[in-house]
């Protein structure tokens, strides 16, 4: 059994003793100081210790009860206590939320591992958008970014008014400070920081890099399980939200605010992480992908990858996602008389893939940890020649895709447009097509014609 850590989450070897609240979408309550949380009501005339009550709404006030998300934060000072927002420039200008001027390419695209830009930079300054669709201002669409940071955010934080971030670390653990408390997220884990929440990302070691999906509409939810039943895939209890933690620190602090695709910065004279207690169902969370319980074919044929969906952001069309987060994690392949790797196909959805570690069973070479591929709507793709030949000659024995392999896919119904800096990047694999050259044509015997 790969997962042997005690439950709930215990300290993770980096000197932290973080405690988490478990469950997906629960009504949580947490206080860093006993008695800080008003119990009978949300807005007392005077809050305990003179704290300020503030609501953070993640859905419209009138959203149906089952979808409604909001939390109440009890803080040392109201979050409005900052100076004017001024435009905030990043050194490389590689963050996009408007894709109208970007190019949608039918070409199969692949990138070798993304490297950090070289100079010292933090999470925000390192953001590099690869592709996306729609726009933040219409609250529709998504963006896919990579990050590669070599510095902490010091006295700076980010809040994204444009949507939710799903962060997928690839190398280096992240220590994430949020208004709700602290999260530590290592490669093999993911975290979600929703719209509006202030947070700061710091590397636990010297560097960290990874991928990030941003959705401009809605929120992630667990996929329906249908005939699978009540259990399987990601279990709600394995999602972990932080416990309240605060600092009362006077400092020259910059609040960076991403709004309608642009970054703005405002100064304030204190840390924004001053929430002493909170309650509600709108809170960041993390999830250890090792806890995912995959379902797979037990007799024959290759199922569609939707069986590996961890989280989905639904569109308004039933069964169709703005974006799904899907993983290809350790599991047994046992299907008989079956081509076991991913089949050749053309998909009405678009597929962005990344590799956290190891090798992906659909590609023998070229798809590397920290790299990425994009197969857009109806662009044909599938295994390379070497993988095809090995799979058609392989034995019928059960085969384990072991702990060393972990790939993921962001699958979207929208058409991704690729930024010019991603299309012109030095690490774009300009010979990707070559991996599909050399398939021998099937031969129909003349007698069969
Ligand atoms: O293209 C890919 O590698 C992703 C994928 C995996 C799979 O098992 C079936 C279909 C599919 O698109
Ligand atoms: Fe695919």
From TrEMBL:
<keyword id="KW-0828">Tyrosine catabolism</keyword>
<keyword id="KW-0560">Oxidoreductase</keyword>
<comment type="similarity">
    <text>Belongs to the homogentisate dioxygenase family.</text>
</comment>
<dbReference type="InterPro" id="IPR046452">
    <property type="entry name" value="HgmA_N"/>
</dbReference>
<feature type="binding site">
    <location>
        <position position="351"/>
    </location>
    <ligand>
        <name>Fe cation</name>
    </ligand>
</feature>
<feature type="active site" description="Proton acceptor">
    <location>
        <position position="302"/>
    </location>
</feature>
<keyword id="KW-0408">Iron</keyword>
<dbReference type="GO" id="GO:0005737">
    <property type="term" value="C:cytoplasm"/>
</dbReference>
<comment type="pathway">
    <text>Amino-acid degradation; L-phenylalanine degradation; acetoacetate and fumarate from L-phenylalanine: step 4/6.</text>
</comment>
<feature type="domain" description="Homogentisate 1,2-dioxygenase N-terminal">
    <location>
        <begin position="19"/>
        <end position="289"/>
    </location>
</feature>
<feature type="domain" description="Homogentisate 1,2-dioxygenase C-terminal">
    <location>
        <begin position="291"/>
        <end position="441"/>
    </location>
</feature>
<dbReference type="GO" id="GO:0006559">
    <property type="term" value="P:L-phenylalanine catabolic process"/>
</dbReference>
<dbReference type="InterPro" id="IPR005708">
    <property type="entry name" value="Homogentis_dOase"/>
</dbReference>
<dbReference type="InterPro" id="IPR046451">
    <property type="entry name" value="HgmA_C"/>
</dbReference>
<feature type="binding site">
    <location>
        <position position="345"/>
    </location>
    <ligand>
        <name>Fe cation</name>
    </ligand>
</feature>
<keyword id="KW-0479">Metal-binding</keyword>
<dbReference type="Pfam" id="PF04209">
    <property type="entry name" value="HgmA_C"/>
</dbReference>
<protein>
    <recommendedName>
        <fullName>homogentisate 1,2-dioxygenase</fullName>
        <ecNumber>1.13.11.5</ecNumber>
    </recommendedName>
</protein>
<dbReference type="GO" id="GO:0006572">
    <property type="term" value="P:L-tyrosine catabolic process"/>
</dbReference>
<feature type="binding site">
    <location>
        <position position="360"/>
    </location>
    <ligand>
        <name>homogentisate</name>
    </ligand>
</feature>
<feature type="binding site">
    <location>
        <position position="381"/>
    </location>
    <ligand>
        <name>Fe cation</name>
    </ligand>
</feature>
<dbReference type="GO" id="GO:0046872">
    <property type="term" value="F:metal ion binding"/>
</dbReference>
<feature type="binding site">
    <location>
        <position position="381"/>
    </location>
    <ligand>
        <name>homogentisate</name>
    </ligand>
</feature>
<keyword id="KW-0223">Dioxygenase</keyword>
<keyword id="KW-0585">Phenylalanine catabolism</keyword>
<dbReference type="Pfam" id="PF20510">
    <property type="entry name" value="HgmA_N"/>
</dbReference>
<dbReference type="GO" id="GO:0004411">
    <property type="term" value="F:homogentisate 1,2-dioxygenase activity"/>
</dbReference>
<dbReference type="InterPro" id="IPR014710">
    <property type="entry name" value="RmlC-like_jellyroll"/>
</dbReference>
<dbReference type="InterPro" id="IPR011051">
    <property type="entry name" value="RmlC_Cupin_sf"/>
</dbReference>
């Amino acid at each position: 059994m790969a997962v042997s850590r005690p439950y709930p989450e215990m300290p993770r070897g980096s000197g932290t003793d973080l405690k988490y609240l478990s469950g997906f979408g629960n009504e949580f309550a947490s206080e860093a100081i006993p008695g800080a949380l008003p119990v009978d009501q949300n807005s007392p005339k005077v809050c305990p210790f003179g704290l300020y009550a503030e609501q953070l709404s993640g859905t419209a006030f009138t959203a149906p009860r089952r979808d409604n998300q909001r939390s109440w934060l009890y803080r040392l000072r109201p979050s409005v206590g900052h100076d004017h927002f001024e435009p905030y420039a990043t050194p490389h200008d590689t963050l996009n939320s408007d894709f109208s001027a970007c190019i949608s390419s039918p070409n199969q695209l692949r990138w070798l591992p993304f490297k950090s830009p070289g100079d010292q930079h933090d999470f925000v300054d390192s953001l590099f958008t690869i592709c996306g669709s729609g726009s933040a201002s219409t609250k529709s669409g998504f963006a896919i970014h990579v990050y590669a940071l070599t510095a902490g955010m010091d006295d700076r934080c980010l809040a994204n008014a444009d949507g939710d971030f799903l962060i997928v670390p690839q190398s280096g653990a992240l220590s994430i400070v949020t208004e709700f408390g602290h999260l530590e997220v290592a490669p093999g884990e993911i975290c979600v920081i929703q719209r509006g929440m202030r947070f700061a990302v710091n590397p636990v070691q010297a560097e960290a890099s990874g991928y990030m999906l941003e959705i401009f509409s809605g929120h992630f939810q667990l996929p329906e399980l249908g005939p699978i039943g009540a259990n399987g895939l990601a279990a709600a209890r394995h999602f972990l939200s932080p416990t309240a933690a605060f600092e009362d620190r006077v400092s020259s602090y910059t609040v960076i605010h991403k709004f309608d695709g642009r970054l703005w910065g405002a100064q304030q004279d204190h840390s924004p992480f001053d929430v002493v207690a909170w309650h509600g169902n709108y809170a960041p969370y993390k999830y250890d992908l090792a806890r995912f319980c995959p379902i797979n074919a037990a007799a024959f044929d290759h199922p569609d990858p939707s069986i590996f969906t961890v989280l989905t952001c639904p569109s308004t069309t039933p069964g169709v996602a703005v974006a799904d987060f899907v993983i290809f994690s350790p599991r047994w392949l046992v299907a008989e008389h079956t081509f076991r790797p991913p089949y050749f196909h053309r998909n009405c959805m678009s597929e962005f893939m990344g590799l956290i570690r190891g090798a992906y069973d659909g590609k023998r070479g070229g798809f590397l940890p920290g790299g990425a591929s994009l197969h857009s709507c109806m662009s044909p793709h599938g295994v390379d020649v070497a993988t095809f030949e090995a799979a058609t000659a392989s034995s019928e024995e059960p085969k384990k895709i072991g702990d060393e392999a972990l790939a993921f896919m962001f699958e979207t119904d929208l058409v991704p447009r690729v930024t010019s800096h991603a299309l012109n990047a030095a690490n774009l694999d300009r010979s990707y097509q070559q991996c599909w050259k050399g398939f021998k044509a099937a031969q129909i015997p003349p007698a069969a014609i």
